[in-house]
Input
Amino acid sequence: MNYFLTLIILLICCAFFYLHKADLDKDATNQETIRDFGVQIKELQGDKEKLEDTVSTLKKGLEDVTAEAADLGKQLQAVKDAAIEKSDLEVKAVTAAAVAATAVAPAPPSNTLGTITTLDGKTYRNCQLLKVGPDRIVISHSSGINDILLVFLPPELQKRFGADIHPAAESSPTPVQVPQGQNQAEDSPFGHP
Output
C-alpha cells in the first residue's frame, strides 16, 4: 500500500505541477497581452497627440483664412465704394458737360421769319424759311411759296443770311418792274404759288 499511496501523492504532485505550470503559462500570456496592450496604448497616445497637433494646426489655419476673408471683404467693399464714387463722379462730369454744352450752344435758328417787306416794296406775311441759297432764300408765306434775292431783303436779314452787302447795292437796289394787277405768286421766278 505504500506503493499505492506514493503513486497517489505523485499524481497529486503532478497535477499541482501541471496546474501551476498552466497558471505560469497563463500569467506569461497575460503579461504578454498586457505588454501588447501597453504598446497599443502608447501608439494610440502618439496618434492622439498627432491628431491634437493636426486639430490645432487646422484651427490656426481656419483662423488665418477667416482673417484673410474678412480683409478681402473689406477690400472688396472699398473697391465697390470707389467704383460707385467713380461712377457718381463720371455721371456728374457728364451732366456738367451736358449742362455746359447746353449753356454754350447757341439756340438753333428759327425758321419763322414773320412778316418780310422787301426793298422793292413787296410784303410777305407769316413767312417760314424753307431754303437758303447762295444768292436767295426760299420762303413759304400766307399766299404761297416764293424765292427772294438776298439783295432785296432788309439789311438785318441780308446779314443773317450772309449776303454780300456792298454800299452801292444798299443805296440803290435795282427794282424789278412788276405789271399792275399781278398777284404775289406770279412774282416768283418759278411761277408757282
